[in-house]
Each structure stands twice: as structure tokens, then as C-alpha cells.
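Retro notes, item 3 of 5
We never archived the inputs for the alpha-D-glucopyranuronic acid complex last cycle. Fixing that now. Sequence and ligand:
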Amino acid sequence: MKQLLVIITTLCSFSVSAQYSKTAIDSINKITQADYEQMLGQLGIKPTECRPGPSGNPSDAHAANRLEEKVNQYTLPDPLILKDGKKITTASEWWSKRRPEIVADFEETIYGIVPKNIPPIKWDIVSVKDTMIGNYKAKEKILNGVVDNSSYPNIKVQVSLQVITPADATSAVPVVLEFGFFHPFGNAEPIKAIGIISAGEPTWKEQLLSRGWGYSIIEPNSVQADNGAGLRSGIIGLVNKGQPRKPADWGALRAWAWGASKAMDYFETDKEVDAKRIAVEGISRYGKAAVVAMAYDPRFSLGFIGSSGAGGTKILRRVFGEQVENLASSGEYHWFCGNFIQYASKLTPDDLPVDAHELVALCAPRPIFISVGSPQVEGQWIDAKGVFLGGANAGPVYRLLGKKDLGTMEFPTIGMPLVENEIAFRQHAGGHSTGPNWSTWIAWACRYWGAGKYY
Ligand code: GCU
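Structure as it came back at the time:
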């Protein structure tokens, strides 16, 4: 847990302190608090009606549950039962009836609705150069996605995207799109990857290039800031013309996912990239963004969902590790729509019409790999088993669509790869990172994308 806290602090500091002074952070927190309170006002919730979440520090009196025997009893919504109580039995009923219900429930209660009037984005190629990624020759393109802000010129949105392809590629290559960073912050060294790379293994970037595949990185903060103070700017603020969100408006996760879909639009125009073979990947809050992006954009062919925890593939009803109350607090509510706060005040997580297994189900029939680290190194905030159960309980939908589920409902021992099927899972022995699972992910992805070349 200690390590997780350190890494989380580091992650947060990438997005906040490396860019802002202490005064600026205080001001961000103040504006965030004011935005949070105005949202409570819109929802008719008094601040005292919000239940506080448990602490991520295991030694605190109100520490989050870390004991399996203390997990509550809960009933998951059935992904195959319609709101009118009828069970669906065919793939066509899934597509025409049940899936749209689940999509709407997630939008109204958790992630928010993407507005219809988002202005267009124009991708400008800022630079193209030959480069080396470790031992591999590559071509780097840097793009700037300029969003048309003629409707509200006070807010500018420019999406940063890097695209790396093998220098010697002779045809379009598969690409993994990561939510992450490629620009250095301040005077810092360029960040190579978020997380820990297993000792002795090449970086994920080299592993992909060695396969003849490419990768791309989208910077989430260039789409939407990672705090409540930023909700009146970024793509959310631009569409709202600088005004506060309404309770069902989209949060940062869907905004980041929208950015990934815009990157996908670009890939469809880039002859060096095979837009039919694009995976989406991320760790932690970006693991949440990755599964949301995959759920809502069918063009992502594979997913690699790293330690996504609560708000990702972890069952929200499960009392273990991070809880809805934490997600709905002023530090994280901006990832979701305002309505979500209701489930940490007047309502409870059991009142949610959907749970995380149905988010995984929205990705069906496309293959999804769920990754998590070890409790000893990563800590238990993420709730590895809860993350697994999100995948395991999506099984009925994958089966209905003629695909194979995880193959077991039993939480596997650490390191055991469950990678035979379209829902895959592996808990690696490392920390808060997708790092130690890359080689397993690539081997699994080869089944769908072909082995590519290897050198
Ligand atoms: C916090 C947060 C998690 C999130 C993580 C991160 O720990 O509670 O939900 O996944 O930060 O993104 O680093």
C-alpha cells in the first residue's frame, strides 16, 4: 500500500505539482471545492449528507477493508435481464434491447452523457522524425488536435498525440494507444512509461517495436484537466461555454475516452497505421479511461486494462479497497457525472442500475485483457479480486455473442495467466503498473492480430 501511495502521489504530481506551484495547487483545490459544492447544490444534496470514503492508508482507523472475510453480500444486476424483467436469449436482443439500456444507465448514473454538439477537431502534424526507441529504429510523429473553438474562443483545446511506428515497416502496423505522457514536465526528463518495468525485460515500447507493431500516446490532460477546477475548461468546458456541468454531463473519463476516439479518427487516415488493429491501454485512472474508451468505441479491437480499480473493472458493490464514496468525493468526482455523487449520499452503491461487469460486457465481443499487480507490492486499494470479478461476470454476454469467457469464476493464484479466451486476466507479481504483464499481453494479442514479425 505504501508503494501504491507513493506511486499515486507521483502520478498525481505528474499531473499537478510538476506543472503548478503550491499557490496554484491551493487555488485549484479551492475552485474544485466550489465546483463540487455547486454540483451538490444542483443535486439537492447537503455536504453533510455525503458519506466519507474509507482511507487508503491501512493504518488509519477508517482504513478500507482488506480482508476477504469482511466482504459484504451483494447482488449484481443481471446483464441479460431487461428492465422489464424479461431475459434475453439472442445476440440480436443484446444489440437492439439490452445493450442500449446498459449504455444509457452508465451514462446517466456514472460516466455522463457525451454532448451531441462537440465541435470538430483537426489533426495537425507538428513534426515527423526518425528516432531510436531503445535499440529499435522508429518513426515518430507528433500531432496536435486543434478543436474548433469558434463557438467560445476563450477556451482552447489542443490534444497532444504521439505516434511511433517501426522505421522499416512496409505496410500498416497494429498500434497500442496508451493514455499517458510523452512531453517532459518542466525540466524533467521525458517520461518513458508510467509504472515499473520488470527487471531484465525490454520496455513495453521496445517489446511492441520488436514485434513490428507501433504505439501511440495521448495526453489526457490536453483533453481535460484531471481535477474539478478544470471542468469549466478543456473539452467539457468548451462545449458548456465555460459554464458548470449539469448533473448528467460527461466527466473526465468520458472526455479522455472521446480524445482516444478522435485519435482513432486520425488513425483511420494514417496509411502507416492499421486502424482495424488498434488496442487501447492505460494504468489506474487511465486504466479506467481505457475500458470506458473500449466500451463506447467499437473500433478499438483489443483492450489492456491496467489496475483500473473502482470506476474501472472493479465491482463497485464490493466492499474492499476503494469505494464509491471515494470516487464521488471532491478529489475524484470530476472523473464521473455529477449524478454519481448521489450513490455516496442519498443512495448507496447497491442502488446503481449497473456495475462494472456490465462495462466489460459493453466491450463484447472484442477481446479484453484485465491486468492487476500483487497486493504485497501494489497494495489493496485497487481490489485485485474485485477487478477480476468485473471480467468474470461479463462472461454471459461474451458467451451469448459466441465468444469465450474467462473460463473460471475462481480468482487465480498470482502470476497465473488466464489468457485462452476473449476475456483474459493476469495478476502479475509487481506493483502499480502494466509493466510486468506486457509480454503476456502481447502473446495473447498475437492470437487476434497475428504474430507479426519478431526481431
Ligand atoms: C487514486 C484513486 C484511484 C486511481 C489512482 C490513480 O488512488 O483513488 O481510483 O486509480 O489514484 O489513478 O493513480
